[in-house]
Amino acid sequence: MSTTATHCPYCALQCAMTLTPAPSSETGAGAAVEGRDFPTNNGRLCRKGFSAPELLASRQRITAPLLRGDDGEFREAGWDEVLDLLAEKISAMRAAHGPDSIAVFGAGGLTNEKAYQLGKFARLALGTRLIDYNGRFCMSSAAAAGNRSFGLDRGLPFPLTDLQQASTILLLGSNVADTMPPFVQHLEGARAAGGLIVVDPRKSATAALTDDAGGLHLQSAPGTDLELLLGLAHVILNEGLADLEYLAARTSGLAALRRTLAPWWPERTEQVTGVPAAQIRRAAHHLGNAARQARDAVVRGETPAKVFVLTGRGIEQHANGTDTTTAAINLALLLGLPGTPGGGFGTLTGQGNGQGGREHGQKSDQLPGYRKIDDPVARAHVAAAWSVPESLIPGPGIPAAQLLYSLGGSHGGTLPDGTPGPRVLMVHGSNVAVSAPDANRVIEGLRRLDFLVVADFFLSETAAEADLVLPVLQWAEEEGTMTNLEGRILRRRRGLTPPPGARDELWIMAELARRLGAPGTYSRDAREVFDELRAASAGGLADYSGIDYADLDAGRAVYWPFRASEHDDGGAAPAGAMLGTPRLFLDRFAHPDGRAKLVPVRPAPTPPGDAAGLRRVGNGGSRPDGDPSALALTVITGRLLEHYQSGAQTRRTEALAAAAPEARAEIHPAAAAQLGLEDGGWIELRNSQGVVVVRCQYSAAIRTDAVFVPFHYPGLGSVNRLVTSALDPISSMPAFKNAKVTARAVPAPERESHPDDARTGAAV
Length: 764
Ligand SMILES: Nc1nc2c(c(=O)[nH]1)N[C@H]1C(S)=C(S)[C@@H](COP(=O)(O)OP(=O)(O)OC[C@H]3O[C@@H](n4cnc5c(=O)[nH]c(N)nc54)[C@H](O)[C@@H]3O)O[C@H]1N2
Ligand SMILES: Nc1nc2c(c(=O)[nH]1)N[C@H]1C(S)=C(S)[C@@H](COP(=O)(O)OP(=O)(O)OC[C@H]3O[C@@H](n4cnc5c(=O)[nH]c(N)nc54)[C@H](O)[C@@H]3O)O[C@H]1N2
Ligand code: SF4
Ligand SMILES: [Mo]
Prior knowledge:
alpha/beta; N-terminal domain of TfIIb; Rossmann fold; Dimethylsulfoxide Reductase, domain 2; 5 domains; 7-stranded mixed sheet; 6-stranded mixed β-barrel; 24 helices; about 30% helix; globular; binds ligand MGD; binds iron/sulfur cluster; binds molybdenum atom; metal-binding; metal ion binding; Assimilatory nitrate reductase (NADH) alpha subunit apoprotein; iron-sulfur; Mopterin_OxRdtase
């Protein structure tokens, strides 16, 4: 086989790469990648991307279905055997307990085709309403905020390269220097101009970019971004920096917003956020002046130096994540940015297909095309596209975390309404035992199931709990499309022959549907599925009907929405030509009145105590009452450059595992001194949810009231055991970035957790 032009399997930047098999090999053994020229990555890759081919031929790869026997051990089994068995289980379960006894958990890493087919398979072949996916843990707050304010959610509503023309970028809770290293080149213009402003309780690698160029790092206390944004907006509105003309012409709701901003003068904001009032003023004035200059340049007919407000998981993964993202949107609207040549607002999508993954119907409340499942018109359209009666499409299910907590209806698991939870779960593309909130509770749920099926290529901690593991294809072995963080659709191409025992998930769904005698059709061919997706999405918010593989294969830059009626079918556009909608909202926002909504948001009243019953004080951990050896800290969780998500893949990559072999808690030396904790010593973090014991690492880059722990590890280092079940009421996003704990120095644990050891992990 020759080289193949494709994209990285990991994050939403979807860096373009060229895949080359080893000489005289058709499989992944010895395959290599290099960066390919493309507007988003310009030939660059990060360490994860470079090392991705190593996993294709990993010794740890599962290459035959694994079925758990009566002795509790896995044995290899044939595909016919396991699919027959699974179809029988599903049929029996449905007959005894109804279709909602089966649930499905999907992922934002799946191709558009697989995500679409999974939603259809769940609703029609299984007949269940209980499907949701890991994007709930990722983009849901930003998506909810975008829908509420703009009437539409697309992570970046403009091409990424627009950032290169920026003088000023406000980056809130995003650490792109580690999470999307090639992205940093697009920040360079603003950084060099002294206009990069980063909000993060840590001086992350991204916040450090502000150091030498006159930018600004606002080191807010964890979970206080809503207040900080209200403070910034207060200055902008009250000190004549808002774009009143834009607000009058393109938005609604200014009067109500004005009232909510009134109490947030900078000195008061400082008290809550810890960010000095002078810095708040400086940032607000910088943003306001830059936005005005951009506006003036547009009026003069010149190319403006643009201004952007961008958000990441740091401000979104909170129990008020939707409102906080809304406050960031309000700020961008006050500055007159969204939908103008002067700049814009965007959210950095995370997973490889985090964008497409939330458009095609694997979300509990959605149908393809970003349609609402409870909208009669949407249901009728999709039923027609699927050639089934509308009554066959179930109603809305429940969001991811609630779904996971409800598992195991035969053994006490209940849905929020008190009825028995699902008894069979199929997981496609997520390692929930490590990545979901309140991990101990999730693992208990998995163990209550009658039958757990996990489709994966590795024995992840979740697959290790399964009754049946279905080995699937990796990125380089399958066909399909991905939608990157800009809403641009990209082709994933098959460049290698998969191991003989692994199967395409489209094939698995088709084979199961056939055995179940399911209504609807289930193609095994990605292009056919895509064509069906196009028809199903036609007329929806995320309209893909004008997009075809031919345009993508010709290298045209295609952004949704792209209606079939807009496709002139000339097929003559050159490679790189922009089709569809590269820039959204230029004429109008997606609400019926064409206006963006200024949604007034307020912080919740301060709770009398937090989850651990601890007091919170400014910048510095507080002593929990009566305990001189302990400190109350906020755990913020996030990512290391070397590892991806739950680490199921990157912990199996030799160089990445060696570079970051175990979870480490980053703690300020001053906080550590209060605990009598040496650099490299063991720290215990404990709250009512669980316990984590990890080595610490001194870091002057973090606030003294916080500790940072990456979530890439299982066992004793699995930080999601400390994350509560509290959810954002609008998006159902967990509060991953805000767990209150009591910290102590402890002796080294008797038995260190082993990276592959899920079972001991759950037992602590
Ligand atoms: N290396 C690597 N890259 C990845 C991934 C990965 O797992 N590893 N995952 C991909 C995915 S799915 C996603 S969603 C993206 C995520 O990309 P990011 O959003 O950049 O990642 P995080 O590390 O989760 O969080 C970003 C920053 O938020 C800060 N933060 C924590 N709490 C708060 C807070 O209360 N307020 C503010 N303002 N900041 C806070 C953290 O200190 C951290 O530096 O990365 C993608 N890229
Ligand atoms: N504490 C804390 N927890 C977090 C976060 C945080 O910041 N802090 N971030 C959250 C975020 S933003 C995210 S996106 C989630 C992600 O967390 P997960 O959903 O667990 O994501 P991954 O670790 O990438 O797991 C993907 C699994 O599917 C497999 N896989 C990869 N591709 C495919 C495929 O095409 N098909 C199938 N069947 N399997 C595949 C991989 O081998 C792996 O086992 O974690 C969330 N959890
Ligand atoms: S930045 Fe993201 S897409 Fe690019 S190489 Fe790294 S993991 Fe892959
Ligand atoms: Mo994510």
